[in-house]
Design a protein that fits this description.
Blueprint (H helix, E strand, L loop, with lengths): L34 H8 L18 H9 L5 H12 L16 H21 L6 H8 L9 H7 L3 H15 L15 H14 L9 H11 L15 H15 L4 H28 L4 H32 L4 H26 L20
Length: about 375
């Protein structure tokens, strides 16, 4: 069944208007996609949450039933989770900043997370084969399939632009979810992960922050570069990919899975970035479009070694019981990325859009 976007006017009223780190207004709340999203948005507003008891309220039985019946990879659940998680990043216009820690919202988020995480664990076998998981990341898929290969060989400009829209939900906050691992690591693992993050954040240069480079890429492609500008048109798998890293990042008990996710991202990026740079050059894209991917070809090749030999190795030497979690993070990343890839390729091979709605033209200023 195709995803549906429901309309809901943004609540207006007094209160502070959140801003992004660049000082521009925070994004507006997205349109919901079903009852779970409606339940989340019903808890948001311009005023702080009302004082209550110290204990988190239980989720209503009827809503618990809705969550249990929901598609764990569907648009309603992942839009709802996305909104919950974004309160920990940049927030939303007309939503009071204190809603980030509203006990009622946190209880609902926990129930949504449990549905998602339970499904992932059921769909992925228990696995402690770290070597195999890492090797599989660089194994060529049957028939040379894959989105970056498709775009490199025969993709068209409109398909490349759609790909960039899918990726914008993460790349405009690239590396932010993984920063939650820093206080949860120690020793060599911590030092190496910080070194990788330092590169992701431009090595001390604001104009080299990877999120800024991606914003420049979007503008070069004639797309909006505003944070979450396209959240209403990306399908569920694009949200699930980003929700996964937020889920891992916000739970200390999942720090091993977060490291596995980060390793998977850094190891798979250089070959795919090389293909995407080649695709953009073939399409005659502006240099600022190509720059984002050429930067990743060089930087992430080094990051791969740091993640393998310093972060993962040191973490598991200190906490060997996290091996299964690291493997789970790697496998879950590949599982959800494959779902997103299928959505794009199945649509494009039928000459159809992979998005839920038409694209708006660019015009938003570049945002770091």
């Amino acid at each position: 069944m195709p995803e549906q976007i429901l309309t809901r006017p943004v609540t207006s009223g007094a209160g502070r208007r959140p801003t992004t780190p660049e000082g521009v207004p925070a994004p507006s709340l997205p349109r919901t996609r079903g009852p779970l999203g409606e339940a989340v948005l019903a808890l948001l507003g311009p005023e702080p949450p009302a004082p209550g008891s110290d204990g988190a309220p239980a989720v209503a039985p009827e809503l618990t039933a809705e969550i249990a019946a929901a598609d764990p990879y569907g648009g309603d659940l992942h839009l709802a989770l996305h909104v919950c998680y974004e309160l920990h990043y940049r927030g939303f216009a007309d939503v009071h900043p204190d809603r980030e820690w509203d006990p009622a919202l946190l209880s609902l988020r926990a129930a949504l997370e449990e549905r998602f995480l339970t499904a992932l664990r059921a769909d992925l076998p228990d696995d402690t084969d770290l070597r195999g998981a890492l090797e599989d990341l660089l194994t060529e898929p049957p028939g040379g399939a894959g989105v970056s290969r498709y775009l490199s060989r025969s993709g068209e400009w409109w398909q490349m632009r759609e790909y960039l829209v899918h990726r914008s939900i993460y790349h405009l906050k690239e590396a932010d979810p993984h920063a939650w691992a820093i206080p949860r690591l120690t020793g060599r693992a911590k030092a190496a992960l910080v070194a990788v993050e330092f590169d992701e954040y431009g090595g001390g240069r604001a104009d080299r922050i990877h999120a800024h480079l991606f914003a420049e890429l979007l503008e070069g492609a004639g797309l909006e570069s505003g944070y979450l500008a396209y959240v209403d048109v990306v399908p569920a798998p694009a949200l699930a990919v980003v929700n996964l890293m937020s889920l891992f990042g916000l739970h200390r008990t999942l720090r091993g899975a977060l490291v596995g996710h980060f390793a998977a991202a850094e190891i798979t990026t250089p070959p795919s970035a090389r293909r995407l740079a080649r695709a953009l050059q073939r399409m005659g894209a502006p240099e600022r479009c190509v720059r984002f991917y050429t930067e990743h070809v060089e930087a992430d090749a080094v990051h791969e070694q740091l993640m393998r030999h310093d972060v993962i190795a040191d973490l598991l030497e200190r906490e060997p019981e996290l091996r299964a979690d690291v493997v789970f993070g790697i496998r879950a990343t590949g599982f959800l990325e494959a779902k997103l890839g299928r959505v794009m390729l199945e649509a494009w091979t039928r000459d159809r859009s992979s998005l839920l709605g038409p694209l708006r033209a660019g015009g938003t200023r570049v945002a770091a």
